[in-house]
């Protein structure tokens, strides 16, 4: 087993990759680490794959996977994680914004300080203000929701124990919340290291402003799913039954009132003329619907199979080469 696997998602990053791989190689050799580099070409339409093939000729420690289309950074990381064999797995962006010189210290924090996950913190972030200001807000919200005291959740540079990356499922756009996912499956020792961050040297960013809206929705679903993943019925069923009982109680009161009035020969109002009647009706209907949602949720989780499959068009696998 290698000391380190470096997992790199790359979408149209042909210019950066040769420099990045050479730099990683130098750092690894200087520190005497055994290593592999796992590049996931996320359906690039530039020369990324040709570049990777060139690198493979001079870099024996390279594995590479090329997706049939652009599935997104989360899918790329997820697949990279499945191939990674190192006892410590380090992710970094392909665009040379993350600094390979951070690798030895990240490795040490995992192996010697016992962290499950160490996240980079781009304290001096080299990106435009339009990105850095909303990011502060996003980090504050995520800290508050998750209870994890990180400054920079979405830093591409992170280190993990191998077991962590094999246990988590990163799909959709969930790469922004890997620490939250890791915590939800029980890896609670999460650390942080200030890391150097460089301006993008080649190409341009692959994410626009929509990242903040999607990011927030993803956070809601993570919080919700991790809380109620096991028993949707505990959430929906509880509120459903409560709502139904309230509605039923009110309806019972209205009808009882009418029956008593008839019995005592007093004047009475029709049940349907009383506003409370509509409240009772709505509460009962909502109650049944919530209960049904919980029930369907239960059926889905007991029958659902695992993550979606991504189609791989090409591969370079080290173990097959040797
Ligand atoms: N990336 C990817 N698939 C995508 C978008 C991005 O694999 O659909 C990779 C990209 O090549 C880079 C990393 O994710 O290695 C971070 O992307 P980018 O630098 O554009 O994000 P930013 O630094 O602007 O947050
Ligand atoms: Mg970048």
TrEMBL record:
Any one cellular-component term (Gene Ontology): plasma membrane
One Pfam match: Glycos_transf_2
Annotated Glycosyltransferase 2-like domain residues: 5-150
GO term, biological process aspect, one: lipopolysaccharide biosynthetic process
Keyword terms, alphabetized: Cell membrane, Glycosyltransferase, Lipopolysaccharide biosynthesis, Membrane, Transferase, Transmembrane, Transmembrane helix
Keyword Transmembrane helix: yes
MF annotations from Gene Ontology: undecaprenyl-phosphate 4-deoxy-4-formamido-L-arabinose transferase activity
Segments traversing the membrane: 235-256, 276-296
Protein name per its UniProtKB record: Glycosyl transferase family 2
Taxonomy of the source species: Bacteria, Pseudomonadati, Bacteroidota, Cytophagia, Cytophagales
């Amino acid at each position: 087993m290698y000391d380190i696997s470096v997992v790199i998602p790359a979408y149209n990053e042909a210019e950066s990759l040769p420099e990045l791989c050479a730099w990683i190689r130098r750092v690894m050799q200087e520190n005497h680490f055994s290593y592999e580099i796992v590049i996931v070409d996320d359906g690039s339409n530039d020369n990324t794959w040709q570049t990777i093939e060139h690198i493979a000729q001079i870099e024996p420690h390279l594995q590479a996977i090329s997706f049939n289309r652009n599935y997104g950074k989360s899918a790329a990381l997820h697949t990279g994680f499945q191939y990674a064999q190192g006892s410590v797995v380090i992710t970094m962006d392909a665009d040379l914004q993350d600094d390979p010189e951070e690798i030895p210290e990240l490795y040490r924090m995992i192996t010697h300080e016992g962290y499950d996950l160490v996240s980079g913190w781009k304290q001096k972030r080299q990106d435009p203000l339009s990105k850095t200001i909303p990011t502060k807000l996003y980090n504050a919200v995520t800290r508050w929701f998750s209870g994890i005291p990180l400054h920079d959740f979405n830093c591409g540079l992170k280190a993990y124990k191998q077991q962590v990356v094999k246990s988590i499922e990163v799909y959709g756009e969930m790469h922004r919340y890997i620490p939250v996912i890791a915590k939800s499956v029980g890896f609670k020792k999460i650390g942080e290291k200030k890391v150097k961050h460089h301006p993008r040297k080649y190409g341009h960013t692959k994410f626009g402003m929509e990242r903040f809206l999607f990011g927030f929705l993803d956070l809601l679903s993570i919080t919700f799913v991790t809380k109620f993943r096991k028993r949707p019925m505990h959430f929906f069923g509880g509120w459903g039954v409560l709502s139904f009982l309230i509605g039923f109680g009110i309806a019972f009161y209205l009808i009882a009132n009418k029956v008593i009035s008839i019995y005592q020969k007093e004047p009475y109002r029709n049940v349907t003329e009383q506003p409370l009647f509509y409240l009772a009706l709505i509460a009962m209907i909502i109650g049944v619907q919530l209960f049904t949602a919980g029930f369907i949720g239960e059926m889905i989780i007991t029958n659902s199979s695992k993550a979606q499959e991504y189609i791989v068009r090409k591969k370079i696998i080290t173990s097959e080469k040797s």
